[in-house]
Amino acid sequence: MWNNIVMSKAGFGCGNWCVMGDFNAVREPNDRRGVNGVLSSNMEMRDFGGFIEDLELVDLPLLGRRFTWYHANGIAMSRIDRILVSSEWLEAWGDISVWVCSRDVSDHCPLVVKIANNEWGPKPFRFNNNWIDHKHFKKVVEESWRGMEVSGWMSFVFKEKLRGLKGRLKEWNMVEFGSLESRMKNLVEDIRELDVKGEIMGLDSNEVVLRKEFFVELWKLQKHKEAVLFQRSRSNWLRQGDANSSFFHNSVRVRAKWNAILALKVDNMWIESPLLIREAVVNYFKNHFEASATIRPKLDEVPFSLLSEEENCALTATFSLEEIQKVVMESDGNKSPGPDGFNFTFLKSCWDIIKGEIRVMFDQFHGRNLVDGVMVVNEVVDSAKRLGKECLIFKVDFEKAYDSVDWGFLEYMLRRFGFCDVWIGWIRACVFGGNLSVLVNGSPTGEINIQRGLKQGDPLAPFLFLLVAEGFGGVMRRAGELHLFKGFKVQNEGPMISHLQYADDTLCIGEASVDNLWTLKAI
């Protein structure tokens, strides 16, 4: 049956295709549970996935429930009912959601397709990497950058110049590439008219030149469209040349469809209104990053290593322009841009224009291994087996570790390690405070005040988190010194292991005793 459907689609060609029903197959192991106690075969999943790819259809995600078929035994269940649509179908019908409804006597749940044309709000500015290949791009940037007179602290000047440049680039983009689809359509029609005239009566020399110019312009616009699609896809495994294939376009649409938020379940109720969804997202992150009122114990009796004066001087030494340039040039230009929409591709391509402001901004701002930990754990377990000794291994799971860091405790730990006031002031300026905005289906929400946590993707975040986590490590060492916690001795002459830490992973290791458990609970 699958081959017949593929052949039918190939025969009729592209169009608004919608294939739905009970396919009696799944795409991944998580689509089936409790079926004869065996996971679906790789062959079945590969064949079904290949069928969907051959059809070049998008598998619409489900809302409401995870499975669509339930066995009478109440154990076996699968997602075997699906709705597959073509890219043309998606473009024609707008926002589409598929809801799994309640079943009655049937073992299948009915699927309901809802269609809505929701307005999620304006899309933020994003720097287009393809702009740097335009012969007039740097001239536009330099004229805008040099032409703005802004006074004040250099970080403010830099921000305002980027804001002004953003508006200028939007205007320039509309002139050079704006109304892309209509311009390409008009060029195709102009070329067609010249082709028809050439067939009937031939073209004069001016028309031949004009036809070539049309082709050059059309090629430029097609390359621009391809580059924009490729950048939006944020693909790490496709080359930019692949962006002209139907497989690429389908992959982009599949990713967009699966990442879209068409409904949210809040307090056991589903909401679909864009306004209510945005409000729910803002409320969640506002509560998530709200500071806790918990009074935390001090660790004044726990010793920590102290930084020397030389180490503090090295930390607060002035950055050179060469150091700043090295960091910029070695950064991946295609990573997610900041809130202003400018990425590292812009910084690299326009470095000679903006480096002066960046240098002043930085000047004013100045006014162990994971594999080792795994090997140690394996050695502990093997040693316990060889010696026939019981061993306690307790894994501490930090919930949303980076987001939960208390700024007051972070500053306390910085001072306990002997960081100087200048460095602590920098950390306060970079980490403590600030606002965030959440993209909901590509449109930013209002700003949310942050009161705790470390920023994901910040190169300093792992190191700052380790300083916070070292508070736990210090307490564990102190508990061992006071004989309140007994670690596990690896072999007779081996070291005593009480805990291992790497990033946000922590393992407590010790003798299997009730006293150790009580100590861990108290800590």
Automatic annotation (TrEMBL):
Protein name: Cysteine-rich receptor-like protein kinase
Occurrences of domain Reverse transcriptase (ranges): 367-511
Single annotated GO MF: kinase activity
Domain of life: Eukaryota
Keyword annotations: Kinase, Receptor, Transferase
Organism taxonomic ancestry: Eukaryota, Viridiplantae, Streptophyta, Embryophyta, Tracheophyta
Pfam families noted in UniProt: Exo_endo_phos (PF03372), RVT_1 (PF00078)
Domain Endonuclease/exonuclease/phosphatase residue range list: 15-108
